[in-house]
Each structure stands twice: as C-alpha cells, then as structure tokens.
C-alpha cells in the first residue's frame, strides 16, 4: 500500500514570533528569496533592513479585536512600523498603508480606524504618504487586515551615540543591530512588560483585567532620539511578539554572548503580574507595543537610564541585566536567589495581538 504524503500546514503558532515562526521563515520562505547585500540585509533578521542608506521595514497587522483598551489596529500599525525603524537608529520619514477590508465592514468602523491612523501619525511626526485598499468576500478575513511599510534615514544623533560608545570599547556595527552586544554591556528596559498582550487578551476573553491594564502602544522615535543624544547605546529592540524573553534570546544568539537577567529588576505592573499568575502565563513572553530594550556600554548605563526616565514613555525604566561570558544563552536570576534558563517561547501564548 502506497504511503500517503502528509501535507504540512501553517498553524497559528507559526505567526507568534517564537521558535515555530523562526523555523517557518528560515526553512520555508528565506531559501526561495534572493540574497541581497546591504548594510543590514534580510538575512540579519533585524527589525529593519538598511539598503543604500535607506532604513526600510514592513509589517502586517491582524489584531483581534480591532479596538481594545489603550489602542486599536490603526494606532498599532503606525507605532509598530515607526518603532521598527527607530530601534535601528533610524529617523522614520514616511509610512505606506495597505488595507484589506472584509465585505460588509461598517463604514463607521473604517473611519474610526482611519482617524486613529491619522492621529497617531501626527503624534509620531511621520505621515502616511501612499497606500492601497482592497475588499475581500465576507468570511475570507476577519473584518480588516492592515499592512504598513516605512522608510527612514540615519538618525542625525546616531554617529554621536556610537562615538561615545566607541570611546569605551570597539563597536562593530554602524547601526543598532542585534549582533552588537558585547561582554559587560548593560540591558535597560524602558518600562513595564506584558501590558499590551494582557490588556488585549483580557478584553477579548472577558477576564476583567482590562479595567486595570491598558495596552502600552506608543511611538518610540522621540525616546530613541533622547537616548542617542546621550550616547553609549549599541543595540535596541522592541519586544513585540514573543516578548522580552524572545528579544534577549535573539541578542544572545546573534551577538554570541551570554546574558544574565535579574528577575526582581524587571518592571511588571501588579495587575499584569496577577493576571499572568491566574492564567498560567509568563509575562516575559507576552508581547509589548510601546517598550524597548536597550543595550548600553556599562560606563553610560546610568546616564542613559536617567534620560529614559525623563521621557513620558520611560518613567518605569530599569536596568535589568548584563551581557557576560560566564553564562550561555540567557539566564534568569530568580527572586528567590536561584537561576534558570530563560528560553525563547515556542509560540505566543496570546495570539492575534499585533
């Protein structure tokens, strides 16, 4: 009897930002694409590419529901794209916006999302300059999908920042890339983690935490400028899908250096902590949309932290760890004094949040 070939299929876990998504991209997408050289090419898997001095990124948004405490699919799409350019050390200039609408979508809903896109782009100072609109039959998508792309140029403060960092140790990259962390560098998180994912999950499922937890959606471009003006940062990342755990594991892997994180230093709000305990979730794997982690040479860590805390989006910032050759991968020093490996998530425990 002939063996039937089992057809592999895409699952929700493949879009969650963890190891399953990485395997999907590396094994089933990248091998079919041409390898194009650039300052920061596709194969570096950073938050944006840099080609001929142009910082370029793109993102798709399938959030459910479209509106949630602290934000909506419109503000999410703009901030997500602006932040991906900013954390590379880029200055975002313009956004494109493509909307795929489900037949039957209420015009009032479309206008509400469009207004949110406009308001958020004005807040960022980054206009939407081009776009596209398509409509699909009812039942083919869930109300609305938005894809945004953004372009930027090198921040006028990036050279100053890297000059400061280079005065303390050799800096190999001209951008804030994931592979630029080195022994002794300090890790700063700009605020509480897990807010976005928990706010959206709670609102979606009716758990009740949404009255206490708001999504942290926010543009990071002005905060990045503040950091670069102080100087000493060597890498930045916004811990979206897969959360803080996935982001620091990417740094450890790409920079080929261990990372030790102090659990007690990580800012987590009480409502998020309580929700995660009740639901059996790890807040370090929950997605964020208005936070960054910043790698800084140790000599400038306190100065950078001070600058972040003076920003409206950085008042809860904290130094949470350092890069070290004494460990492999990412090790979490627990609040009770032990140690455990902080693994990247296989998938996202809270799907459809971005």
Note the topology:
Blueprint: H1 19-28, E1 49-51, E2 54-61, E3 67-68, E4 71-72, H2 73-86, E5 90-102, H3 107-124, E6 128-136, E7 144-154, H4 158-166, E8 186-189, H5 195-205, H6 221-230, E9 233-237, H7 243-255, E10 258-262, H8 270-279, E11 293-296, H9 301-309, E12 318-324, E13 330-333, E14 339-341
Helix pairs in contact: 2-3, 4-6, 6-9
Description:
This protein has 354 residues and is α+β, with helices and mostly antiparallel strands. It folds into two domains: 111 residues, 60s Ribosomal Protein L30, Chain: A, CATH 3.30.1330.10; 193 residues, PurM-like C-terminal domain (Phosphoribosyl-aminoimidazole Synthetase, Chain A, domain 2). It contains nine helices and 14 strands. The strands form three sheets. Strands 9-11-8-12-10-13-14 form a seven-stranded mixed sheet. A hairpin with a 2-residue loop joins strand 1 and strand 2. Helix 2 runs parallel beside helix 3. The longest helix is centred in the N-terminal third of the chain and has 18 residues. It is globular, with a radius of gyration of 20 Å.
List keywords for this structure.
354 residues, alpha+beta, 60s Ribosomal Protein L30, Chain: A, Phosphoribosyl-aminoimidazole Synthetase, Chain A, domain 2, 2 domains, seven-stranded mixed sheet, five-stranded mixed sheet, globular
Gist?
The protein is built from nine helices and 14 strands. The chain has 354 residues and is an alpha+beta fold. The longest helix is centred in the N-terminal third of the chain and has 18 residues, at 107-124.
